[in-house]
TrEMBL record:
It catalyses: tRNA(Asn) + L-asparagine + ATP = L-asparaginyl-tRNA(Asn) + AMP + diphosphate + H(+). One of its GO terms (molecular function) is catalytic activity, acting on a protein. Keywords: Aminoacyl-tRNA synthetase, ATP-binding, Cytoplasm, Ligase, Nucleotide-binding, Protein biosynthesis. It comes from Peribacillus glennii. GO terms for cellular component: cytoplasm. Gene3D superfamilies: Bira Bifunctional Protein, Domain 2, Nucleic acid-binding proteins. This is Asparagine--tRNA ligase.
Amino acid sequence: MKITITEANKYVDQQITIGCWLANKRSSGKIAFLQLRDGSGFIQGVVVRDDVGEEVFARAKALTQESSLYVTGIVQKDERSPFGYELLVKDIEVIHESVDYPITPKAHGTEFLMDNRHLWLRSKRQHAVMKIRNEIIRATYEFFNKEGFVKVDPPILTGSAPEGTSELFATKYFEEDAYLSQSGQLYMEAAAMALGKVFSFGPTFRAEKSKTRRHLIEFWMIEPEMAFYEFEDNLQVQEQYVSHIVQSVLGNCKLELNTLGRDTSKLEQIKAPFPRISYDDAIKFLHEKGFDDILWGDDFGAPHETAIAESYDKPVFITHYPTSIKPFYMQPDSEREEVVLCADLIAPEGYGEIIGGSQRIHDHALLEARVQEHGLSEEAYKWYLELRKYGSVPHSGFGLGLERTVAWISGVEHVRETIPFPRLLNRLYP
C-alpha cells in the first residue's frame, strides 16, 4: 500500500510503501539510518542488514543525497523520533540517483543558499516555514469565511497608485501607462460597497530600494474591507484575525515550530484584545527611552517600533498617526483633524509592522480635496471618488503582510525565508 509520511500513524505495524527522497543517511556495519522526506513530512528509515540481506543493505549504503526512491517497510512507533514513528525498511527501489547534490549537511553561506533556493526549499527548516505559511493561509480563509466575508480578486495591473507612484513598478499597457499593484485596497473598497464585507489575498509589489530583513520587492497581502465598520470595529476584526491564525499554527504545526526551535510560550499569549498606544504617547515613550531625534510628525523606523513592542507581550496597536504622514484616503479624527483614524499593528520580538489599517474617508468633498492636496489625477481617481457619490457609508479596512507575519510566528530572522522564491533588491534568480 502506497501512503504519504504524514499518514504513517494510521498504519502502525503494517507494511507500506512511500515515494520519497533521501535527505541524509548514516550507517554502521550492520544498520543504516535513512532520513527520508516526501514533501508531506520526514521519517527515519532503519535498514538492518540481517533483516534485508546483503543486496538491499548494499543498495541502502550506496544511496546518495536527494536520490528519489520507493521505500517499503513496516511502520513502528518510536518515541525518540520528533514525528513519533519510524520505518523498518524491507526493500528499496531507486527511481533516480542524484549525483553531486550541491547543498550538503555542512554550513553554507546565505548567497549560496539563495542561488540554490530551488533546492534549499527541500531542507527540513525551509519545509517547516512553508508548512507554517500554508497553515496561516488556510486559517485566513477559515476566519474570513466564518465571519461572512466574500473573497474578491483585485487587479494586479492598475492605472493609478493608492499611495503615490514613487515606489511602483511602471510598465506599458499597450498605449497607456500602468503599474504593478502595491495594494488592492481601492478596488476592495468598491467591492465592499457591493458585497458588504470582502477580503483579497494576492501579490503586491513595492519598488522600494530596501535591504532590511523586513522587506521584499514582491510579497503577498491579505486585505479586508468592511462597509459600515468604523475605526473601533476595524481594530477588533484585526485582533480577532491575528489571534485566530496564531492559535491555528500552534494547534496544527507543533512539529514545524519544534523543528524551528520556536519558543511557543510567547505565541500562546497572543489572544485578543491587544494593547494600544496613541502616536502622541508613543512619541513621549520614545523620548523617555532616549530616542531624542524623533519629533512629532515623523514616521517611525524599525528601532522605534521595536522599542515600543518590547514593552508588550502581545502585538500592539499604534493609533492616530499625523495626517501628514499617512495616505490621502484615511478618515481624520473628528475631534483632532491633524490625526487620522488609523493604526499600525506592531508584532513583538522585533518583527515590526504586520498590519496597517484605517477608517476610510467617506465624504466626497473631503476625499476630493485630499486628492487635490496630494497632487493626484482626478481623472484617474474618478471611479474611486464616485464611490462617495452613490450611497457612501463609513467603512474601514486593513492590509496584513503575509511574509512578515510568517517570519514572526515561525521565529525566522529574515523574510527571504518566508516566501518560496523571494524577490529582493538584487535578486531575480531563481
